[in-house]
Amino acid sequence: MPGVLPTGVAIQPLTSEEEAQARRTAQRLHADLSRLVSALPERAQAASAMARHLGIVRNTCQRSLSALQDDAPSLETLAKLPGVKGLEQMLDAIEEQGGDAAALDLARAAVRAFDDLIRSLAGSHTKLIARLSTHPDTPHDTSHLHERARAALVDAATAVTGRAVELSVNINVFWEEHTKPEETLHRLSVTGLIGTTIT
Fold this sequence. Notes:
- By secondary structure, the protein is an alpha+beta fold.
- It contains eight helices and six strands; from the N terminus they run E-E-H-H-H-H-H-H-H-H-E-E-E-E.
- It has helices spanning 16-38, 47-54, 58-68, 75-80, 84-96, 101-121, 125-132, 143-161; strands at 3-4, 10-11, 163-164, 167-177, 184-194, 197-198.
- The chain is globular and about 75 Å long.
- The N and C termini lie far apart (42 Å).
C-alpha cells in the first residue's frame, strides 16, 4: 500500500528490485564506513568526540554511528545515515586526519552509489526515507522515520549554508512603562547559540 509523506504527498513502496538494490547499498556503506570509523582514535568513537576530532557537525557523526551500530545492515540503515553531503564532509575530514587512502576510495565509491540510489529511487534522501517507511518489515509506528526525514532536511541545509547549531535559545521580555503620557512598550531580547559550527 502506498504511504503518505508528512506533507500529504502519496508515496509508493519499493519494488522487489529496488529493495534488493537498496539492501546492497546499505551493506556496502555499512562495511566501508565501519572500516574507516573503527580506525579513528578510541577517544573519537562517540558522537561529540568524533565531531570535535573531525571538525564537523555532531549530527552527522551521531547519525553515522547510529547506522553503523546495526549488526546487520538493512533498509533502515539507509534512513539512519546522514545525507550524501554529510557523508562526503565526514570522509574529507577523515582524509585530513590521515585516514587510509584505499579505505577512503572504497567509502567514496559507496557514497556515490548511495547518491545514485537516492536519485534513481526518490530524488532526495527525505523522499527515500519515506519510501523505506512503507516496507512491510518496517514497524507500524514510523514516527522515527519522519524524524529522520526532518534530520535529512537539516543535513541538506547545513551542507548548503555551511552552518549548524545544536541548540538555539531565544528569550524575549516585554514590559510597559506608564510614567509617560503615552504608554511605552520595552523589549529585552537575548539569543544564545550552543554547539555552533561554521565550515
